[in-house]
Write a structure and sequence with these properties.
Chain lengths: 91, 346
């Protein structure tokens, strides 16, 4: 119950909070987004939501050779690892 | 006061209003929204409806109530932050959106006046734009006691007569706007008035959608609180909140303290728009949530607009702009829902 009480961002729709919201949202889509485009179709203010999503798709592909949406048996990106996964970020 | 204004002279009128902050619909890519105008030539009244109504100018998405800071003694210093002194003019207001403000007026007025709302409301002059064609295929203002040329909530109404605008003022504020550029306006002739009447009669006929038997709906809804009807209707709802955020009559808000520094303590109390379609909207601090499911939230939306508000304020809390219909990602259509309510037997 306490975990739900952590405030990750304020309710104010200001640059700083909107920025954090979109970053967190996009990062959660790594290995998940299949670029169907519904998010952009629906947004009433034409926010280019796919812009950040595509960066995460690119990273999933380039860093982990992972593409979402083709193989229903494929495990999710964030819950699996292969031995050849890059480790250069571990210092 | 009935005048006509050549369309070519319109930017000059806007120029003469430099002592006001001028808002008008501006297009960015495909999106129309009210923005502050810095160049009078930018004002373009040839538009479909805006995404957000001018409500956001009077009742902004975010505003500061007060600032607090710990003083050196034991106390807390609290400073009220009122909206700034800023007379404004809003151009291109559709009669339905202006009528919406008269409805939010009832909520923010009455026994407890909301000083933040009224400060902005009282210093804004609204210049309407009559709808000779419906701005949206989902317009239904006539069903909810509105009209494409309603005066309610407006200080001035402009109606397009081809090469010129028919301009009417209904208030002192409106007359002041016209007098600021007196020489640009000519008195309206009988010919102008006849053309206006003709346009208006046709405008009414162009509104294609309507709510059937709306007068019976409030009472019908009263008996449907516990009905499984709402489970079916809300099944596809994503609780994205678009319907409520775009609605010109919706007005729920949340208040939060945002702490900028904890030592020394400094922060602000902020009001933001809230949304009854979000699951946490009615979450109590105990963890109990009376509206846990989508059915209860859709029921809330419909009943608030077409039963509770009618009982309390004798008006439907809907002005028929159709934004919720046009923008719902899953096609939940408030007119269809109400038609089903009308014919529901259960």
């Amino acid at each position: 119950m306490n975990a739900q009480k952590i405030k990750w961002l304020e309710k104010s729709p200001v640059k700083s909070e909107n920025f954090v919201y979109h970053l967190v949202r996009a990062i959660h889509l790594a290995g998940r987004c299949i670029d169907c485009g519904e998010c952009e179709r629906v947004c009433p203010l034409d926010i280019p939501i796919r812009f950040l999503n595509k960066k995460l798709e690119k990273d999933a592909k380039e860093l982990f050779d992972y593409e979402a949406g083709f193989d229903p048996e494929q495990p999710s990106l964030v819950s699996s690892f292969k031995d050849k996964d890059p480790e250069d970020f571990i210092r | 006061m009935e005048k006509v204004l050549d369309k070519k002279s319109f930017p000059q009128w806007v120029k003469k209003l430099s002592s006001y902050t001028v808002y008008a619909p501006l297009q960015e890519d495909e999106v129309w929204n009210y923005e502050v105008i810095t160049n009078p030539e930018q004002v373009n009244l040839d538009l479909p409806n805006t995404v957000l109504s001018p409500k956001k100018i009077i009742f902004p998405q975010r505003e500061v109530y007060l600032e607090f800071s710990a003083s050196n003694e034991d106390g807390l210093e609290v400073k009220e932050v009122l909206p700034e002194e800023e007379p404004s003019v809003i151009f291109g207001v559709r009669p339905c959106d202006a009528r919406a403000l008269t409805l939010t007026d009832k909520v923010f007025g009455g026994d407890f006046e909301d000083i933040y709302y009224w400060k902005r409301r009282n210093q804004a002059a609204l210049v309407g734009l009559a709808c000779h064609t419906p701005p949206s295929p989902n317009c239904f203002c006539l069903s909810v006691d509105g009209s494409p040329f309603s005066q309610e909530g407006l200080d001035v109404l402009m109606s397009d007569l081809g090469s010129k605008y028919f301009v009417e003022a209904f208030s002192k504020k409106g007359e002041e706007l016209i007098n600021a550029a007196k020489t640009l306006f000519k008195p309206a002739t009988e010919k102008d008035k006849k053309e206006l009447e003709k346009n208006r009669a046709e405008a009414k006929k162009k509104i294609s959608r309507q709510i059937q038997n709306i007068k019976k709906i409030p009472l019908k809804l009263k008996g449907m609180f516990d009905s499984p009807f709402w489970d079916e209707e809300s099944m596809s709802c994503l609780r994205c909140g678009i319907c409520t955020y775009l609605c010109p009559t919706c007005h729920c808000f949340d208040i939060n303290d945002e702490v900028l520094s904890s030592s020394p303590l400094k922060g602000k109390r902020i009001r933001t728009w809230d949304n009854c379609q979000f699951p946490d909207f009615t979450m109590h601090s105990s963890g109990h949530n009376p509206r846990q499911d989508k059915a209860s939230r859709l029921r809330q939306r419909i009943m608030h607009k077409f039963q509770y508000f009618v009982e309390r304020y004798k008006n439907y809390q809907c002005i028929g702009c159709g934004r919720c219909i046009s923008r719902c990602p899953v096609g939940i259509d408030i007119i269809e829902v109400l038609d089903k309510v009308s014919s529901y037997e259960g």
